[in-house]
């Protein structure tokens, strides 16, 4: 009996064991059908594990230590001007960076007190050249720079460019700490970045975030540069916190290299609300070099206009997404010379993919007239590449040097001695015609106006007017007459610096 019980127990154990093995094998096999193999990643999986493991924690200390000494605090003062025709012009960045912030404290348009503002800047050379935003120093009569070590310097504005919202100022001295240029073409969405500047008049402040997008167009430069200006906007968008006063400060990578100049924030209140925008350093370094060497930007053009988008329910103004469709080829342009035609779809510049018009204009902005550029385009389903020589807006490759008279936007003619005697003046300069410039944008001067005095000095020729303007501060009062009308008319001009 004992032996029988033992045999029964053994048989039950065997059956139970076999059933367990059967059931385990069945369910394990089914599970393997839906589980991922760690030995092989899907082909569309991001390369997070390339290099043998997941990334470690990011250390910002070295980048912060490198960049903070090279970023400066800029304070500006704009003297009041008395005029019978000038109206207060609000900065297009007022809602973003509060350039009119101090109006609430120093009065409105008719205030007799100087206007104060502040921003940031970045040393780019050891001998004192600093890059900042145009809107930081725009209209300023005095510019003061405070370094990280609290030393202060008076700065002069070297030159500005409203089309890119960049400016170069300079302090006298040597051995200043400066940042090395990075490469904004290599910036990737998702990478860590630091914003360094002087927000809200605080001392040096460092914030961190990631690049959230590239090639952003906001339309803010158009309002400052003018309706007919060829503005450049191809911003790097980040979520690094920036506020009023960060304008002109540095956007750096974790290696401490300059990859952008902070220029704007997207905010309904004027304070940080999630996103900030920086001018890519590849545009910055080209513009800075031009402003230092030539006093104005040597702008290169492909000589095309994009094809407008139809009413197809998309948000884009142009036909784009996988390239830029050419809507028009300008005569005597680089594209015409290279054989590019209407309907061609440009997909690459120097073998780098371009998908949108903003991306394309941002890429071309880092070149000068005279440089060669490979353009890859699709025509009739076939890919072609043309090598073209970029030109300036005049259709040539010559160096452009703007004079102060060009900035006024008018054609001038010296008043003859006979006419001067007839009008009862010692001499003057006739405004023969007006175009887009300071005279048209800031005054109500009409064609035929005769300038007889500028900056309190009488003048007799166009050359004398030019000399007075070039030696003036950032603003000046001009006086003159209209033949056939009584009285002397007075106008105020600002933003004279080239």
Provide a descriptive summary of the structure in words.
This protein is α+β, with helices and mostly antiparallel strands. It folds into three domains: 61-294, Thrombin, subunit H (Beta Barrel), CATH 2.40.10.120; 304-389, PDZ domain (Pdz3 Domain, Roll), CATH 2.30.42.10; 404-493, PDZ domain (Pdz3 Domain, Roll), CATH 2.30.42.10. 22% of the residues lie in helices and 29% in strands. It has helices spanning 2-32, 61-67, 94-97, 103-106, 134-137, 220-225, 281-294, 334-338, 357-364, 404-408, 417-423, 438-442, 462-470, and strands at residues 71-78, 115-123, 129-132, 142-146, 152-161, 166-170, 192-197, 205-216, 235-238, 250-252, 258-266, 275-280, 304-306, 324-329, 345-349, 352-353, 372-379, 382-389, 410-414, 429-434, 450-454, 457-458, 476-481, 489-493. The strands form four sheets. It has a six-stranded antiparallel barrel. A six-stranded antiparallel β-barrel has the order 7-8-9-12-11-10. The N and C termini lie far apart (115 Å). Mean pLDDT is 82; it is low at 29-39, 41-52 and 82-110.
Q: Give the spatial strand order of the biggest sheet.
A: 1-2-3-6-5-4
Kindly report how far apart the N and C termini lie: 115 Å
Question: What is the structural class?
Answer: alpha+beta
The third-level CATH topology of the largest domain is Thrombin, subunit H
What fraction of the residues are assigned to beta strands by DSSP? 25-35%
Share of residues in helices: 10-25%
CATH architect. name of the largest domain = Beta Barrel
CATH class of the largest domain: Mainly Beta
Q: How many domain regions? A: 3
Uncertain runs are 29-39, 41-52, 82-110
Q: Give the overall shape, derived from the CA principal axes.
A: elongated
